[in-house]
Structure formats: C-alpha cells, structure tokens
Amino acid sequence: MSTTPFFRTFVAEDMQTVDRVIRARLHSDVILIRQVAEYIISAGGKRLRPILTLLSGRAFGYGDAHLFELAAMIECIHTATLLHDDVVDESDMRRGRETANALFGNAASVLVGDFLYTRAFQMMVTTHNMAILEVMSEATNIIAEGEVLQLLNIGNTEVTEEGYLQVIRYKTAKLFEAACRVGALIAGADEAGVRAMSEYGTHLGTAFQIIDDVLDYSGDAETIGKSLGDDLAEGKPTLPLIYTMRNGAPAAAALVRRAIEEASRDLFQEVLCAVQSCGALDYARSEAVKAADAAIAAIAGLPDSDAKKAMIELAALSVGRSA
To answer: What is d(CA 92, CA 100) in angstroms, rounded to the nearest whole number?
Structure first.
C-alpha cells in the first residue's frame, strides 16, 4: 500500500510537466547559470508552492499549459529567495546537502538568484494576464520587505508574537498566497473563489512556517535537512523563543534572551531544555494547527472535488510533519 499522500499522487503527472517546464526555462548559454540552477532544482524539496498553483487551478477545472508555466514560475521565485536567503544567513546546508553559496560562492548565488527572478517574470508575461502580473509584482515586493523585516529582528529580544507573525505573512505566507491566487486567476475563478484561495494560501503558509520554526528545536537534522539550532545561531527570535521569553521561568527567559543576543549555537542544549520545559513547542504547534484549520475553513464553500480534497489533506499534513 502506498504511503504517498493523495495531494502528491493527484498532481504527480502535472508536476512532471512542471519540472520539464522549469528545466526548459532555466536553460542559459551562460554555463555557471546552468550549473547553479541545475544544482538547486535537482535538490528536490517539497515543491509545495507549485503544487498549490496546480491544485488551485484544478479546483476550478483548469489544466491548460498556462497553469504549468505559472507553477514553474512560482518555483523559480521560491528558488531565487532560497539562494538569497542562504547568502544572507550564511547557511552551508539545505535539504541535506551543501548550499549553492557554499559550493559556488556568494556572488554566483546572488546573481543566479537574480536570473531566476527575472526569468520568472518573463514566464508570467506569457499568460498575457495583467491581474497575475499585479499579484506577482506585489508579492515579490512584499517578500523583499519581509526579508528586511527579519533582518531587523535579528538579535532583537523585544519582538512580539504579532511582529513575528508579520514577518511570516510577508516572507513566507505571501508566496503561498500568490501561488494559490494565480492558479485561481488563470482558471477564471470568480472574486469569491480567488479570495478563498488567497486566504487558504495565507493561512497554510503561516502554519507551515511555524512548524518549520518548531522543528528547529524538535526535529532531526538528517530528516529536516539542516542543522538543528540554525535559527538560534542566526539570532532569530522565532515563536518558541518568544513564548519562552514571555512565559518561561525568569532564568529560562534570561537564558533565551542571552542566546538570541549572542546569536550563538553554544547555548543550544540549554535553550532546548528551556523551550521544552515551559510548553513553548506545544503552544507553537497549537498556533500552527489553528492556522491550518483556518486554511481548511477558507475553502469550505468551494464545490467538492479531488483538488479540494487534496488541499484539505495538505493543510492537515502540514502541521504533523517531521521535515
């Protein structure tokens, strides 16, 4: 019996088409661009964002070539953000192997990231749909703002839960939302349908990122494909840490503040104990579950379909994952 989730089997054939589109669109006469792009794309990953575009289009009965082009475009933008993120964060491991910047250098990663961004806009232009261009131009701008917001929060022990959620809405959830929105737009969905898909994407992206932040203190390095404590080493005040600083014992709160300010992995084990002992991980997971439930509620009014079934399953699975 297959253990592959339904949402993956439902779009498996579509994703093969999307992968072919990605490889075709990332071709360049510049060999370094080909090398870095191929390295990143071949790393695999969850491919959730293009899957959301496919599911959104399919939910409204659409499956023409433009849908695959837009799904590939979304993945190109996501990959560009990863390239830039890893340079900013000085990361050396992603998806269980060396990051592109560790292998090819920071300059190559930044410049190929720029290539992916601009190629993505060339791809979306092929749809001749101004609404999609408006959605993506706004989304990429907000994502950039989110990156800067996160940078400003580094080492800041005064970040509130709302401030943390704002970074998530800008940096992560916005691309989830855009992925869902463009699928609905190209399918010709009405205003209510587009709004439902947008809300689903926003809530799902929020749930997904909160769980990512939880896994940095509860996951397995080999399973999640990065070193545990990366967020702490970068001085990022994520939800488990924010909760511990606000609700943990004074000594635990002081320890977390010091660890964030010093942005050091040296205190990881002590911080891990502090986070676990005050219920911070359980709290963060419960907030992720609320967001996932909100995502499911957002599409409750859509007609029943395999695509809708897949989206409900995806939201439910997003909060129970270990990677």
So the answer is: 8
> Which ranges of the chain have pLDDT less than 70?
1-2, 95, 219-227
**The pair of three-digit structure tokens given for residue 24, joined into one six-digit string:** 């075709």
Which of 248, 301, 238, 310 is CA-nearest to residue 279? 248
Residues 34, 120: Cα–Cα separation, whole Å: 15
Question: Per the structure block, which two tokens stand in for 260?
Answer: 């964030």
Does residue 190 come out as left (phi exceeding 0), alpha (psi in the -120 to 50 range) or beta? beta
Other CB atoms closer than 10 Å to residue 80's CB: what's the count? 24
Q: Is 205 exposed, middle or buried (0-12, 13-18, 19+ CB in 10 A)?
A: buried
User: 24-34 pLDDT, tens per residue?
Assistant: 999 999 999 98
In angstroms, the CA 217 to CA 238 distance is 10
SS3 46: coil
C-alpha separations of 113 from 77, 248, 317 in Å? 8, 40, 30
Alpha helices in 154-173 (DSSP H): 161-168
The pLDDT tens digits for 204-219 are 999 999 999 999 888 6
Q: How do strand 93-94 and strand 97-98 relate by DSSP bridges?
A: antiparallel
Q: Which residues pair with 94 in a beta bridge?
A: 97
Backbone angles phi, psi at 130, to 5 degrees: -65, -35
Percent of residues in the chain assigned helix, strand, coil, to nearest 5: 75, 0, 25
Long-range CB pairs of 195-198 (<8 Å, 24+ gap) are 196/298, 196/299, 196/301, 196/302, 197/56, 197/59, 197/298, 197/299
List, in sequence order, every residue forming a beta bridge with 93; answer none if it has no partner: 98
pTM exceeds cut of 0.85: yes
- State both tokens at 148: 């800067």
